[in-house]
Amino acid sequence: MAQRVFSGIQPTGTLHIGNYFGAIRNWASLQEDHDCIYCIVDYHAITTEIDPQVLRAASRSMALDLIACGIDPQRTILFTQSAVPEHAELAWILGCVTGYGDLARMIQFKDKSAGKKFISAGLFIYPVLQAADILLYRAAGVPVGEDQVQHLELSRRIARRFNARFGEFFPEPEPIVGKGARIMSLADPTIKMSKSAGEAHYIGVMEDERSIRGKIRSAVTDIGLEPGTTMSPGVANLFEVLDLSGELLGDQSIAAELCSEFQSGKLMYSHLKDAVFESLMQVLRPIGERRRELETSGIVEDILREGADKARVIARENITKVREMAGLVVG
RNA sequence: AGGCCCGUAGCUCAAUUGGCAGAGCAUCCGACUCCAAAUCGGAAGGUUGGGGGUUCAACUCCUCCUGGGCCUGCCA
User: Fold this and answer.
1) Can you tell me the ipTM of this complex?
2) Domains of chain A from N-terminus onward
3) In angstroms, what CA-CA distances link A301 with A13, A29, A44, A287?
């Protein structure tokens, strides 16, 4: 049997190209030779305040985006986290073998809670739920970005502690490091692309062309460099997008050409931006089309229901074993 | 369970004795620029947490609600 892989993404409403190149594209290719379980993590989404109607719409929308981006429900289990409440139960149990100090050390918690008026206990416990997500399926591998490495390490630690206390059950999940694409914000190339930084910082996978063109045009570059100098972060980021798009399209000649222009100091950034736009749109257009077809076909609900059914079978089996081991009532 | 403090633009905060709700940063548009940045010019942004009351007039005073912070107490 193929190695089982688990990963989750928060329902943020829409994917941006950082999500796509950094994670989802890898999710899609892992389907070739792995047994994949991908989850829209709505329990995670409520760690910070979010309107219930917005959340529900965002979860559905994320499912559409993922399928449009190549997640194949025929081969892969795709579902919404809260449809399998065993995630929450396991999180509780694992929370009891997790050190307070371990959680207090999590960088993401420190970042996300800094300056917040209300910090939920859920936000603090977030990494435990994440561990539960993975361990509930006894996944062997987890595709992660750099920023999630610390959380995965905690998951391994939690698995180890559970095993030591109750008996060997959970495999320690291994990180699967993708191509390492880390797309930066257009407006501030020193930070990772994200929606929360603001409109000008990201490009939505489903965004309309005019808007994308505008954002690429106003992307930060630099004040003009001497030939042979290393690229500024903004320019390097644009090249990254161009490279990745070219790779998917099977044509990297434009990237190579512009790169040599850069080296000789002749590159016009407006040309680079035009090229980035054209290549990127070639990647995004078919995705958008697929997404529109899916939307009208109205089969997402069925896909998610079937996915949840399949996930639940595995989850129930494992949680039953965990209950047994922990001395809890087995119903 | 009791006590104290707080809530004003996306963020940080102003607003005299109760007298026209403002600034900085962020945002958006324009100029400049190969494109951006920086700079300059302009614009938008508000049920002052919510309801009720006093008053000619309430961000300001009273009252209830809600949310947040802190202190004390109790406890499966």
Assistant:
1) 0.80
2) 4-182+299-326 (3.40.50.620), 207-292 (1.10.240.10)
3) 16, 24, 21, 19
